[in-house]
Amino acid sequence: MKPNTRIKNAPRNQEWFLALLPVFPLVLLVLRLWYASKQDTQTLLLLVQTVSPLGMLSAVLLAMLWVLPVVVLGGRLLGTLYRISTGHSSWLVRVAERLPDWVVVLTVVVGAFTWQLRFLPTLAMLALAVMGLTVRDRFPGHAELRTTFCYALPLMAAVLSYVLLWPAIVIAFAEGDVATALLLVLPPGFTALLTGPVPVAPAKVLTHGIAIAIAALTPFLVGVVVIKAPILPLIAMTITDDEKEKDSSSVIVGYLVGSDDQMSTVLDREGRVSFVPNDRLRSRILCPDPGEVPRTSVNLHGWYVEQSMISWLAPALPIVPPDSPDLACQGRFTESAPVPGLTPDLG
Description:
Layout: H1 2-9, H2 15-36, H3 41-50, H4 53-86, H5 91-97, H6 101-114, H7 120-138, H8 143-174, H9 178-190, H10 200-228, E1 234-240, E2 249-259, E3 263-268, E4 273-277, E5 281-286, E6 299-300, E7 303-304, H11 309-313
Antiparallel strand pairs: 1-2, 1-5, 2-3, 3-4, 6-7
C-alpha cells in the first residue's frame, strides 16, 4: 500500500512547467524589442536582425539577480512560518522543505552584492527571520537556542544597523526622502517580530496570500525591469546637414543599432530609424544612461542608496550629474566637439 500511496500523492503533469522555463526569457526579449521599436513591425524586424541576443539575455539575468532572493527567502520564510504556526503541511511548506540551506545562504550573498543600499536592511530582516524560524522549527525543545536566534541576535543586528546607517538616515529625513528613510529604519526593528508563530486562524490566509501575491507579481516586475533595461548604446552623433556647407551641423541622439563602412544606423527615442552616411559624420560620443543618474543624494560615506555593493566597490566611470549633462547628449551642437571616434557596436 505504501508504494501505491507514494505514486498517488506524487505530483503529475509537471512537464508544462519545465517547458515554460525557456519560454519566459524569450517572451521578455521579444517584448523588449517590441517596446524599443514603438510597436512598429519594420523597426522590430531591423532590431531582431542586428541586436545581439547575448545583450538582451544579460538584461534578463541581471533582473533575475535581485528577484531570486525575494523568491527563495520569501518561500522559505512563509512555508516555515505556516508550519510552526499551525503544525500542518501544505504546498507552501513543501516548497520551503525543498529549498536547502546552502541555497538560502547563496541567495543572501547574491542579494548583499546586487541589491541597492536602501534594500539591504530588508534583506537582513528576511535572512534573520528565516534563521530564527528554522531554529524554532528544527529545535523546538532548546529554549536557549530559541532565545539566541529569535530574540537576542535580531536585537543586536537592529542596534548595529542603526549605528551603521545613522548618517544615511539623518540625510534622508533632512531631505524629506520618506521612502528611503522608512526602508532604512523599519526593517531592523521589525525583525524580532517575524521570528515567532502567528495565530492559527489567520496563518493560512496570511502566508499563502503573500506567497500567491509574490508568485503573481514577480513575472510582471521582471518584465518591467527588462523592458526598461538598455540593450543598445546611447550615443550623440554630430553630422553635417549639407555636404557643401561643412559649418552647418546638427546632433542626433539615439541608440546605435549598427555601423559599417558605409553608414551608421541609429534608433532615436521616438522610435524613428536614421541611416547616417559616414562621410557626414563629424563626431560620435557615448552618452550616460539616464537610469544610472542618482535621483536622491542620500548616501553612506559616498555610497549612494541607489547603488549596490558591487557597483560601489568596483571601479566605474564618474556619473554625469543631471544638472550638467553633455550638450551633445541634449541634442545641442557645441563647437568644442569631441575627437571623432567609434562607439563599440553591440549589435
